[in-house]
Amino acid sequence: MGDAKKYNITCAVMYNDNIDNNNPMFDLNRLLIKENSSTMILTNKNLEKIIGDIKNKQSFIDGKLPGFD
Question: What are the strands, taking DSSP E only, across the chain?
Fold first, then answer.
């Protein structure tokens, strides 16, 4: 994670405050969220949109713009 911070790469973590708040397995995720406000929190509600955004960015990088096949 240090390199991600060094190169300004957005981090993403899975975390649901309603059910993961007292689970020690999510201690690192809570720390990352606390230390960096730009950390993306993956939830069931936003996961599909995030994946779509990533696919669109990759298509742009590959020169395949959506709708211009």
Answer: 12-14, 40-42
